[in-house]
Amino acid sequence: MMGPAHSLSGAAAWLGVGAAAAATGYTMPWPVLVVGALISAGAALAPDLDHKSATISRAFGPLSRGVCEIVDKLSHAVYKATKLRGDSNRNGGHRTLTHTWVWAVLIGAGASAIAITGGRWGVLAILFVHLVLAVEGLLWRAARVSSDVLVWLLGATSAWILAGILDKPGNGADWLFTDPGQEYLWLGLPIVLGALVHDIGDALTVSGCPILWPIPLGRKRWYPIGPPKVMRFKAGSWVEIKVLMPVFMILGGVGAAAAMNVI
């Protein structure tokens, strides 16, 4: 799928988690619901770090382009080192390592570790990166015609304001993980969720997605998971734009209402 659909699906998924949390007695404070949805929307773009033409490659200028090149080479190297006899030969690393459950868990765990050990600045860094990505994904038309600096300023300002709100007692810094020293441990959860939702979205497209790596399926370790071919679509097609994106918006609205006990 394309960036806007990925971001919408990530936000909708976290709002759905909020609804489930409310139903099971772990109601999210509204700042956690909002911040988590934005983080998940941004994280839903992150698996495309292996693609130099992806939205994330443009998000932070030369820095993100350089990271994309490194991740592409790393992903390709891992693919070649771990592929089985049934896996095809390929020239790049797109839709390999960063499109697996292993990558999703690792980046989520890494973000939680940064949030705990890095203190306020660690939290601000996580928020800044993912809020910039959320703007690029959810407001992609506006972001395309704006300068990168304006998007970065919006991300930095929003990160500072939201971190200040979360820091206030009862606003969610210690949501779910309540022991001393575990504040913001939950920040990794929307990141894992966003990455996994991205992978599931890509699995619906023609190429499929090797989500289950390194678990071998038949003669392939990089088996492209997906529905029957008749149910798949091309990225950016009318199915994605006119069907899936409206569905994501509706599901997100319902999830938000349920999470806030409106329905």
Structure in words:
This protein is mainly alpha-helical and 263 residues long. It has one domain (3-259). Helices cover 62% and strands 0% of the residues. The chain contains 10 helices and no strands. The chain has helices spanning 3-23, 30-43, 55-59, 62-82, 101-117, 119-138, 140-145, 148-167, 188-203, 238-259. Helix 1 (3-23) runs parallel beside helix 10. The longest helix is centred in the last third of the chain and has 22 residues, at 238-259. The mean pLDDT is 92.
N- to C-terminal distance = 31 Å
Main sheet record: none
Rg computed from alpha carbons, rounded to a whole number of angstroms: 18 Å
Spans of 5+ residues with little confidence (pLDDT < 50)?
none
Following the backbone from N to C, one meets helices and strands in this order, namely: HHHHHHHHHH
Structural domain count: 1
What portion of residues belong to β-strands?
A: under 5%
SS elements, strand count: 0
Tally of DSSP helical segments: 10
Class of secondary structure makeup: mainly alpha
The helix content is 55-70%
- Overall geometric form: globular
Instruction: Give the rounded overall mean pLDDT.
Output: 92
Question: Keyphrases for this structure?
Answer:
single chain; 263 residues; mainly alpha; 10 helices
Write the layout of secondary structure elements.
Layout: H1 3-23, H2 30-43, H3 55-59, H4 62-82, H5 101-117, H6 119-138, H7 140-145, H8 148-167, H9 188-203, H10 238-259
Helix pairs in contact: 1-2, 1-6, 1-9, 1-10, 2-6, 2-9, 5-6, 5-9, 6-8
Short description:
The protein is mostly helical. The protein has helices spanning 3-23, 30-43, 55-59, 62-82, 101-117, 119-138, 140-145, 148-167, 188-203, 238-259.
